[in-house]
Design goal:
The chain is mainly beta. It contains no helices and 51 strands.
């Protein structure tokens, strides 16, 4: 398996990081802009907004987390689950511990928000109500009704006096927060209202008040004067439902995310479209500006894109020189070069800092399925449908060699850690070892009787492990090509990976188990049981003390392999 920093794999120019950990339903910045909270079907991920480093994972809701919101001081996070759930949870942001659970709120949790003073929670629910809760006591203070359909979004005005709500109906409602009285109903949309957001005070269009933006299933974004309820502008351009809207901190820009897979940036004063970001491959569920207005976060297709907005529109780079779809992308180890392989049988190399195209790598007679860099970053390889592996010099763009032979339908290529050898597995149940410098085939490893599911080099490059659908694991001596051990405790297909120190091999099976093996002796050390379906992937933490396993049961489990099992169910 080619190791890449998955958080920076294939991002557009100017983006900071990409996070892909389950279906993403909403994201929110902390008030100081230091943290980004991502509500997903797995739980709530907390990230350092500047570095992209994962800080914590908060898990507690039985259902997927549909909505999150920070308290004004940034120390508490509230979450609401998806489904006909009955719990709202408060989390301590510093410790990641659950502070309190509000129960008995059947049908609530579609949208949650703190009041500006942090003393109350506002909860929009599937039960067509809006509930106001006292944060300290959990007492339900008011229940607002009138929508007649599920409440999808709630938002406070900056002074905390008004509350806006959107629903699966076609209307937006404004409420007096102190009395619970409905002030007005804003009509105009012809589809369900997916998101509502107040602008900051002082927007030039409404000098004495605020604007309210609403995104709808009718493919439009409406801007309204809150004071009079009148429609100021209708922003059109999306070709499907608008799921989320967000104002920049100065109120001059509005972002919208849609089912059409795009994020659009609008000039609020003029109503014109500034930019269209089309990097997502699925619907965009949520958009959010950082508090300083310099970064726009968008969530969709199980990823979060962070887009810099500090540069001018004209300086933004778009890497689109391929003819046809791009099938595979890969960063060089130093992140300075991006390689992309497309339907045009070529690989493009780009400078990630400037967006400039450095080389077009040609030589393949067929579509290139996968692209990757050698560990030292000096060579890029592409595996193509013409049953060949092509290697190019990154500096010059010149093809060094094309490795052919036992390359029938190669679907996995792996460099040894020192870059000297290349292992390929194909659909003929064999593994080939190649000398990267000469292109010479050194060994053909045979013995598996069904498709090989996974291969892995040991950190020292001396051993290769392979796991197959024949329910066996083979350990091979890379230098001689001889088989060292056959491990046979699993009963179905396997994924294999060495620990960072090379002493332990982990295997995940379609028999729902994970097994740990002593690499030196081939002895089974431990069987980890907890999944209820196929285990299709395993990964070690850098210190080798924690093992992650991903399963078709919809969970990822974390195991402390130095002592007893602990796990986090990621649904």
């Amino acid at each position: 398996m080619f190791t890449q920093d998955w958080m920076t794999w294939g991002l557009p120019e100017g983006a900071k990081a990409r996070f892909g950990k389950g279906n993403i339903n909403e994201l929110q910045y902390s008030p100081d802009g230091a943290l980004l909270a991502v509500a997903s079907d797995i739980g709530i991920w907390l990230y350092d907004a500047q570095t992209g480093e994962e800080r914590d994972l908060l898990i507690g809701d039985v259902e997927a987390v549909n909505s999150v919101s920070f308290s004004p001081d940034g120390r508490t996070l509230v979450s609401g689950g998806r489904g006909w759930g009955d719990t709202i949870r408060l989390w301590n942001v510093d410790t990641g511990k659950e502070r309190h659970t509000f129960t008995g709120l059947t049908g609530s949790g579609h949208s949650v928000s703190f009041s500006p003073d942090g003393e109350m929670l506002v909860i929009g629910g599937w039960d067509e109500t809006i509930r106001l809760l006292d944060v300290a006591t959990g007492e339900e203070l008011q229940t607002l009704t009138g929508h007649g359909s599920s409440v999808t979004s709630v938002s406070f005005s900056s002074d905390g006096r008004m509350l806006a709500s959107g629903s699966w109906g076609d209307t937006v409602r404004l409420w007096d927060f102190a009395t619970g009285e409905e002030l007005r109903t804003l009509a105009g949309h012809t589809g369900s209202v997916r998101s509502v957001s107040f602008s900051p005070n002082g927007v030039m269009l409404v000098p004495d008040g605020e604007m309210l933006a609403s995104g709808s299933a009718d493919k439009t974004v409406c801007l309204r004067d809150v004071a009079i309820g009148g429609e100021l502008q209708t922003l059109t351009g999306h070709t499907s439902w608008v799921n989320s809207v967000s104002f920049s901190s100065d109120g001059k820009m509005l972002a919208s995310g849609s089912e059409d897979k795009t994020v659009r940036l609008w000039d609020v004063a003029k109503g014109g479209e500034l930019l269209v970001f089309a990097e997502h491959t699925g619907p965009v569920h949520s958009v959010s500006f950082s508090p300083d207005g310099q970064t726009l976060a968008s969530a969709g297709d199980k990823t979060v894109n962070l887009q810099h907005l500090t540069f001018s529109v004209s300086s933004r780079q778009t890497l689109t020189s391929h003819i046809g779809d791009i099938k595979s992308v890969s960063f060089s180890p130093d992140s300075k070069t991006l390689a992309g392989a497309g339907d045009d049988k070529a690989i493009r190399l780009w400078d990630t800092r400037t967006g400039e195209e450095r080389h077009i790598l040609t030589g393949s007679t067929s579509l290139i399925r996968t692209v990757s860099f050698s560990p030292d970053g000096k060579t890029v390889l592409g595996a193509s449908l013409d049953d060949a592996v092509h290697l190019w010099d990154v500096e010059t763009g010149v093809e060094q060699q094309a490795i052919t032979g036992s390359m029938w339908w190669v679907d996995n290529l792996l460099f040894s850690p020192d870059g000297r050898f290349l292992a390929s597995k194909g659909e003929d149940n064999t593994i080939c070892l190649w000398d990267v410098e000469t292109g010479e085939e050194l060994h053909t490893l045979t013995g598996h009787t069904y498709e090989i599911h996974s291969i892995s080099f040991s950190p020292d490059g001396e051993t290769l492990a392979s796991g197959s659908d024949d329910a066996t694991i083979h350990l091979w001596d890379v230098e001689t090509g001889k088989e060292r051990y056959i491990l046979t405790e699993h009963t179905d297909g396997l994924s294999v990976l060495f620990s960072p120190d090379g002493k332990i091999l982990a295997s995940g099976g379609w028999d729902y188990t994970i097994r740990l093996w002593d690499v030196e002796t081939g002895e089974e050390l431990q069987t980890l049981i907890g999944h209820t379906n196929w285990v299709h992937s395993v990964a070690f933490s850098p210190d080798g003390e924690t093992l992650a396993s991903a399963s078709a049961d919809g969970t990822v489990l974390l195991w402390d392999i130095t002592s007893e099992l602990f796990d986090f169910a990621m649904i």
